[in-house]
Design brief:
This protein has 369 residues and is α/β, with parallel strands linked by helices. The chain has two domains: 180 residues, 3-Layer(aba) Sandwich (Rossmann fold); 177 residues, Glycogen Phosphorylase B (Rossmann fold, 3-Layer(aba) Sandwich), CATH 3.40.50.2000. 44% of the residues lie in helices and 15% in strands. The protein contains 14 helices and 13 strands. The strands form two sheets. It has a seven-stranded parallel sheet with strand order 3-2-1-4-5-6-7, with helices on both faces. β11, α10 and β12 form a beta-alpha-beta unit. α1 packs across α14 and α7 crosses α12. The longest helix has 24 residues. The N and C termini lie close together (11 Å).
Amino acid sequence: MRVIVTGGGTGGHIYPALAIAKGMLSADPKTEILYVGTDTGMEAKLVPEAGLKFASVFGHGLPRKISVETLKVGVKSVKALWQTKQILKKFKPDLVVGTGGYVSGPVVLTAAFFGIPTLLHEQNALPGVTNKILARFVRKVMVTFPDSIAYFGSQKKLVLTGLPVRSEIGQVSRQEGAERLGLSPECLTLLITGGSRGARSINQAMFKVLKELSLQPKVQVVWATGSATYQETLKGLKEAGIQWKRDNWKVLEYLNDMPAALACADLWIGRAGAASLAELMVAGKPAILVPYPYAAENHQEYNARALEQAGAARVILDKELTGDALWQTIRDLMGQSGKLQEMAVKAKGLAQPDALSKIVNICFETGWK
């Protein structure tokens, strides 16, 4: 089978696309994959590094206000349709799979126009504009959250698959995870992350939390500040008079072993990107979520609210986040061991651990029809 996979702009679209491509190759090594993205997106670097063939077309969102720039983007979008047509003509795919982002638009739309079987995967609880439009033309739409179903028109096309996660997530024991991080499996453990570049608001709120936890030696901390904010955070800790070099605290620039960290964590604090939440659910961990306020269409808050409504998380909006607010929420949950366990069960109940196999099966079924 010859398959085009497309999705770009951010890791939230690219990594699921790569997972789908690799899943299909694993199921059938004879599958030929071509990834179509843009030269300016992260995919231009990540896809070749993953060992996949890459082709590019123009991709850019329309400006929110009508202007000369709108006309320029419109002209380039027509060019992208022409570029896509040439790629389809040369590669002759049996299937096209889109995961969102501007580049998915011309690729999936053109393929559907020429009668090529097409699929979409939506990662977020609030679907992106591109995927909501494309859903009218594709064979099926695979979704991560049940909440997103209501935003699409044709319910018959929708399939709840979940989002693919790394195979090691949920497979590491608490004992092994603690050993890999140099921690005790017996102590309550907080895991704090803000993404690879960090989340300044979460990091600053953590100063208050660490001051309080300095009086509770049996509580462990694994805190990945993010590479862009690491030195700034260390400076802030020093200025606040917080001695952070402790055996039971791991203040890291970047967390290289997320499977181990999730395995020994009792409570996770971080943003609400779809990929992170998918791993959180498979691992079955309660969370305090602080949605990134500048995510497109505020989709992270929709993701976070989906877990909150299911009883698996507490949500603090970024504009309402303070050290006191975060500490009060942590203290409240730590004081209710039964509550943390209940939230963990709810999180696990939302998981789709076989998401990749479901998606791969749908891809082969659609492409061979």
